[in-house]
User: Fold this.
Amino acid sequence: METKDWRLEQERLERVRNKLQARIVELEPEVAGLRDQATDIRKRFWEEVTINTSTHEDFEESFYTINQQSAVLAERERGHKLLTQQWKSMNRLLPSPYFGRIDFQEDGLDLSEQIYIGVSSFVDEDGLSFLIYDWRTPIASLYYDYSPGLASYVTPAGRIEGTMELKRQFQIQNGQIRNMFDASETIGDELLQQVLGKGADSQMKSIVATIQKEQNAIIRNDKSRMLIVQGAAGSGKTSAALQRVAYLLYKHRQTIRADQIVLFSPNPMFTSYISTVLPELGEENMQQTTFQEYLDYWLGSSLRPEDAFDQIEFVLTAQGTPGYEARLQGIEYKASETFLQALQNYGMWLGREGMRFNGIRVRERDLITAERMRVKFYGYDHSLPLFNRVVLLQEWLLNELASLERMERNAPWVQEELDYLDTEQYAEVFGMLHKERELFDLAELYATVREKMSNKRREDEGDFDFAGREEDLLRRSIVKESFKPLRKSVKKFSFVDVKAIFGQLFVDEAAYRQRTNGAAVPAQWSEICRQTKEKLLRNELFHEDATPYLYVKELIEGVRTNTEIRYVFVDEGQDYSPFQYEYLKKLFPRARMTVLGDFGQAIFMQATSLEAADSPLVRLFGEAETSLVRLVRSYRSTREIVEFTKSMLPGGEEITPFERGGQKPLLTRLDGGEKRDAQILADIAALRAEGFDSIAVITKTAAESREAYESLQIHGGEALQLITKETPGFEKGAMVIPVYLAKGVEFDAVLVYDASPEAYGRANERKLLYTACTRAMHRLHLYTTGDWSPFVQALPVNVYEKAPY
Ligand SMILES: Nc1ncnc2c1ncn2[C@@H]1O[C@H](COP(=O)(O)OP(=O)(O)OP(=O)(O)O)[C@@H](O)[C@H]1O
Assistant:
């Protein structure tokens, strides 16, 4: 780069920074002043306004004053928020106002415009000249999509064509240009090299300065209802998803708030890992949750649903135990579309017969039997959907309860209770009586006046019968108390025995077929039935049963929906079943969906292929409403690590590493666990000495993690942290972690604790090993104390080194 260019850019940078600084200083008193004013009005708001209701006019006046005050307050707060936002974004810009520049000459204009791009816009005093363009503006997309030459971008008014004459990247720190590159081919190879060469962090970083063209297409896609991203490990899916959230919040800032976007993450730890990206970009975080949280919320009070981690732990550790194969078959089947179809058919069957109800009992006595409910239910018009009939039944039950409650007042048990009432209950009734007495007196007065006016004698002469009324009220309140929980549970649909309805699917094969219109079943169906029922009996649910159970519940009670949410993001999308997708679609009927995942990392049994021609995900909204984007460039790991990992995956040939070199993965075989542990600790120490801060010893299961952790501790590894599914967030340092919790995150160095055939030998363990190895950014070590896993043995010998000991 010519020194003259450098000098000119530094001078411009200083000019812009001075303007930023001046504007910040200018805004400061306004921001501070407004804050004071707003709090001031708030403070005095209630003091000054007293509600005077003595006359109608006074009341109206007070009401008007309140309204006026709150309108002033709202206006001030709006203005304040806007100015504060400006002030904040300028402060954010100040140390590093922009990261890119393009010179663009629009066709038909003589002038080439210089466009500087940063994390938000900054306009000169004239209110027209953009000194910095927000990266999300239409013109800024040129920076991500083109190299110098012919280029175009889309605005709401149409496409603008022209020529990009220059594309420049900056690294600016504390107001100084540290680096400057003119890009010719793809953007930011130099800058990207530098960014990717850095160490892993305990928090994910924003990639705004180096977004790649294929990622930009994901970020700005605003066409389809469903956007599916199938991307190799480390291809920037999560990064792109977060930038997309920031983009949507900017583009639709008038209509969408951050809390109308929800992201489903694989686990709570991941939630904390990505939580700083949006604030770094000056945006509020979207809502984040996990599917498990949702299941627990809706099922937790009645049944204990197992979580996905316990399920996978079982799958990986219980081989050879009785019933294991059947459980596996069950997991696969219950996640399938066949089962979903079977349940839909089951819903139809329930419309004709087979509904199960819980009778309503009071004091060991049947009030309304399950049989009566059944007869009533099947008496309704059969063409009505199941849940409409359930609602009709609910209304009927509430009415029935009301009349039964009236009759119940004369039951002998009420008399008994009457004799044992405590003083508190008497006092309550006494209070009620007095209120009644007032009413009674008023009614008496009214009757007397009428009598006088109409000159007619009234037939009945009123007298307030205290004793009679007292007993009546007491009876009423006793019965009411005992009916209250009944009414409440009817409102919550407890009269439908969902557990029995779900359970009766698992009686035997013949019954299942009959009830689901001939659905096919896996070979070990009777064992699957036995296991499912046994779990239900203990008020527990297998993880694979949780979503189907909710599905059946909603067939009966009606669908739950959230119409506020406009965008749903699902990260690690390969780990959700077709069932769960159906569910999300119904839950968020007004939302567009973005699903990001990698079938190469599908380690759970209920995996869904994101891109196969017959993928249930494409069917969810139909092909016309779905866009599919594939990412094959991997940015996380060095070229050597990517060459190693991609050879492990069938079909992995197309994965291309970003050109960043390092050492080949190292295979270390040692005879005996003790030696292995000692070597691992020595390697961790050496890696630390090289400056690698985040190091993960990755195991296959949680059980193995614990063993490894304890064993490494005995050999002196006190500074290690053990990560379990309960760990709330990551800290930098060395840790032991099971692979399924390391999903989505990355480390400077990964040490695969045991890469033997025993650990990674079965077909479904290939992807586990792949997922573990692809967490590494700079270094990858694998260890064994015996043979190597067949997936390692099958690798070309030139993709790794072997340790000389
Ligand atoms: N355009 C980019 N510029 C800079 N860094 C990038 C870019 N794209 C991806 N990265 C980096 O690559 C790493 C992997 O990104 P990310 O975690 O988003 O990938 P992923 O596809 O979600 O990975 P996985 O499926 O393995 O979890 C991160 O460190 C991210 O910062």
User: Anything to note?
Assistant: The longest helix spans residues 3-48.
